[in-house]
Amino acid sequence: MAGFSKILVVAAVYFLFIFTFTVAHPGEKHDKSAIAREMRARSALATDQHAQLSSCQNTEESRALRQRTMERRAATFQRLREEQGLTNVPFVERRNLAQFQQWEKTPHDRSKSLSYTTSTPEATVFGSNASCILAPDNANGPYFVFGEHIRSNLVEGQPGVPMHLEMQFIDTATCKPVTNILVDVWSCNATGAYSGVSAAGEGGLKTTFLRGVQQPDAMGVVSFDTIFPGHYSGRATHEHVITHVGATLNANGTYSGGHINHLSQLFFDQDLINAVEATAPYNTNKIARTSNDADYFTGYAATAAYDPFPNYVMLGNQLSQGIFAWVELGISLTNNVDQYATWAAYLAADGGHDNPNFNMWMVASPPSTHG
Signal sequence: where (predicted)? Predict the structure, then answer.
């Protein structure tokens, strides 16, 4: 379980976040509701971008990509169910197309759980209308490790609810799939500890669990086998995502160089979080949980046009059988947010090392390209 040192780190990040916000807006009262209103007001930028991109979204090429994406998800879902021997078991889904459209009208809408059978049409479950909307950048957080392994299976024996996470990346300038990036993900384990960092209560520099990097395929898709993240003090349940441009794939299965053009965090429906946290080993973590509504950074993650909550389907009718989650992220390949993506440690041939130049200030707030 994450120790007291993590509480201090998170508290420091929040202090820096509030301090930065206060300096930028002197003379205002910065309570939580005011900050939330400020962040949501900035969603107008993403809404404008959505309108500008509507023409390329409706091209024959874009429609064909959405169809192939739906078919791919259905095939992946079927494969995962077959591997678990669940082909005749009902499953549960969240956020179908109609609910997603309703969310666009009301940001941060929480959809209700829907039960489907194995005969439910694929388009009902796996269709989506989000593809060419710019995903806002978010705060990087203090536990980024540079140079992690190129791999798709991140579990390394960590106990928890299995999660197959699929992400599709679209160039917002062209509405075409992005293939020339590296996608870097990480999360804490079921009891709130991160691998790869030396802070007390974390996994340590010699660990790499729940971290990994992939290059998208021709459809702009990367897939990771991981577990549903746990929680720690001061933060809602989340998954970190970074994309690298111009990085080099090394012979030892890692990467180097390049720059970071996007950094964000994925969040999850509160009902799903509550259900997962009631299971072992999540329920052994006695640190008080922070809800989505109480986390300062969820407001930066969502806009009126972009939903940071992945769609998901339970592979069966029990969480222990796993979750298939997917999300689409529109990114700008010309963006550079290196200064906001300070890494706490780096992975070298001889193992992990602390970053002597780690900058806590820069991980405390999102870039100007946030929501």
Answer: 1-24
